Amino acid sequence: MRGLSLMGLVEVRHGSGAYVKGSATGVVGSSLQMLLRFEPVGLVDVVRLAGVLHRQVALSGAERATDADLAALAAAIDAIDGEASAAVAGQVARFLDAFVATAHDPLLAALCHTLDRVVLNVTADVLSPGSTALATEIGHIRPIRLRLLRALTDHDSARAVAAADEYHAVSERIVLTHPELAGARLSDPRWAPLLAGLG
Questions:
Q1: DSSP code of 188?
Q2: How far apart are CA 38 and CA 36, in angstroms?
Q3: Which of 118, 108, 100 shows the shortest CA–CA distance to 160?
Q4: Dihedral sign of CA atoms 66, 63, 154, 96 in order
Q5: pLDDT at position 196
Q6: What is the number of alpha carbons within 13 Å of residue 57 lying toward its C-beta?
Q7: What residues does 13 pair with on adjacent strands?
Q8: Phi, psi for 63 (deg, rounded to 5)
Q9: Where are the alpha helices (DSSP H) in the chain?
Q10: Coil, strand or helix: which one is 17?
Q11: 8-state DSSP, 9
């Protein structure tokens, strides 16, 4: 039972019994958590892999995005601008989840959710929520997010991929220009509490 709980398949509530969770994200998150904690993987590696996966999201999203998906994505973009700096990471996570949802691909969603949370959690831990540099970068990304939304709305895969690539170029630059982020190894015990919540 403990093994199933660690894998994210079962939730045990003392006094209430065990409940099947059946979460693909939980299984993927738990598995990747173990890999990241015991292999020499850097934050830069995670950012680059997320970029590759988001290209596939852009391709699939351009084909499959529904009106409801696009409305959720637009609302998530607006919420980032209206949020206080201390809570912006949560709104960026909402944006990424809404973007990934346009692909209607459960495996892709589970992988992206986990990798995106790694990047966001570590970045938020290292950088001050009120960082001027980070706020400037987030402001610069808004036009890219809007281009991505327009491309998905027009079902234009080439433009969607270009916008996703541009978004990740900025994300990678943020990581590479901060030495603590650029040098972050996820096997470092410092990150264990952040990785523990991935499942």
A1: S
A2: 6
A3: 100
A4: positive
A5: 81
A6: 29
A7: 17
A8: -90, -35
A9: 2-6, 24-38, 43-64, 67-82, 88-101, 106-126, 132-153, 157-176, 179-182, 192-196
A10: strand
A11: S
pLDDT tens figures, 42-72? 999 999 999 999 999 999 999 999 999 999 9
Whole-model pTM: value is 0.83
Q: How many other CB atoms sit within 10 Å of the CB of residue 50? A: 22
Hey, what are 160's tokens? 């969607």
Residues 6+ apart with CB under 8 A from 180: 126
Distance from C-alpha of 49 to C-alpha of 73, rounded to nearest angstrom? 22
Quick one: pLDDT band at residue 4, thresholds 50, 70, 90?
very low
Distance CA 196, CA 92 (A): 20
Q: Say which residue the tokens 């994300």 belong to.
A: 171
β-strand partners of 18: 12
What is the set of domains in the chain, with CATH numbers? 42-187 (1.20.120.530)
Specify the pLDDT at position 57: 99
User: 13: helix, coil or strand?
Assistant: strand
- Token pair listed for 13: 């509530």
| pLDDT confidence bin for 83, thresholds 50/70/90 | low
Residue 51 and residue 45: Cα distance in Å, rounded? 10
The encoded tokens of residue 55 equal: 């290209």
